[in-house]
Specification:
This protein has twelve helices and three strands; from the N terminus they run ααβββαααααααααα. It has a three-stranded mixed beta sheet with strand order 1-3-2. Helix 6 packs across helix 10 and helix 8 packs across helix 9. The N and C termini lie far apart (53 Å). The relative contact order is 0.12.
Length: 277
């Protein structure tokens, strides 16, 4: 049954690394797959190097999964810092989906390309405050990895589905706690029923939604769905002239922007493309 399968995904030893280093090796596997497929989907790729590394142990207690550290002058490498200091309770199931969201072709592609675009004024080159765009692109990229062939095994695919389910579940628990009067315990119970996260991860995530940055979690799915809608519209209008590499350039080469501005920007590019062709 579905309940039994989700229990298997949450508890089977095959999904849990024996060491922190083993978790890093699993991430590197998906980095390699994504990097090999990227040229078929992107006309431009950042020059900044990228990779994965363990999260500093002092931050492990406050981070559910980890985070992307963007390139800087002092640290020119874009790095996904993963939290695996407790490997016995840190599942590798969503490792592929996380790499696609956080690194390639997700945050690293979008953020590094924006930083490297000298045509943009500095106020836009280094502004990543449009969460709907930034996190929406991360989720769009994670979904794009289906097409890129990154999810090779049934469990790779199950991992992406469970990540997508988590992002969707946030829409329920964030609005539940902040708009509908849900208790945190009710939100945690809802997440336990629907996800494969550990109790520690659920506790951390519900604090994030309720008291840290309420509303922020809604931007992930909102941004992803908007970008997928914009792509479907571009494919419909351009027909056989639609080029996925050119479309991705339209979306991320000009940097972070509001979703309404992105919609207008791509509309302009579609019209300009039709005229020029």
């Amino acid at each position: 049954t579905l309940v039994e399968f989700k229990h298997h995904l949450a508890t089977a030893p095959q999904f849990f690394p024996k060491t922190t280093a083993q978790f890093g090796e699993r991430f590197e596997l998906y980095v390699g797959r994504s990097a090999a497929a990227a040229p078929r989907f992107f006309a431009h790729m950042p020059t900044a190097p990228y990779g994965v590394a363990p999260l500093p142990q002092a931050l492990a207690g406050s981070q559910t999964f980890g985070y992307y550290e963007q390139p800087t002058a002092e640290k020119p490498r874009g790095t996904y810092l993963y939290n695996a200091w407790h490997p016995e309770r840190t599942s590798m199931l969503t490792a592929g989906a996380l790499i696609c969201h956080e690194l390639i072709p997700g945050h690293h592609f979008q953020i590094a390309l924006q930083q490297e675009n000298t045509v943009l004024p500095n106020v836009r080159r280094y502004d990543f405050s449009e969460t709907g765009f930034v996190e929406g692109w991360g989720e769009y990229a994670s979904q794009l990895c289906w097409e890129m062939g990154v999810y090779e095994t049934p469990y790779d695919k199950a991992g992406r589905i469970m990540q997508d389910l988590m992002v969707s579940t946030r829409l329920v628990v964030d609005t539940g706690m902040n708009a509908l009067g849900w208790s945190r315990e009710r939100a945690m119970s809802y997440m336990r029923e629907n996800l494969t996260l550990s109790d520690a991860q659920i506790a951390s995530e519900t604090l994030r939604y309720s008291t840290d940055i309420p509303g922020q979690a809604l931007a992930y799915k909102t941004g992803e769905l908007t970008m997928r809608e914009i792509r479907a519209n571009a494919q419909k209008r351009l027909g056989g002239k639609f080029d996925i590499r050119r479309f991705h350039s339209w979306v991320i080469d000009s940097g972070s922007m509001t979703l309404d501005t992105l919609r207008a920007h791509v509309d302009y590019e579609i019209a300009h493309s039709a005229v020029s062709s």
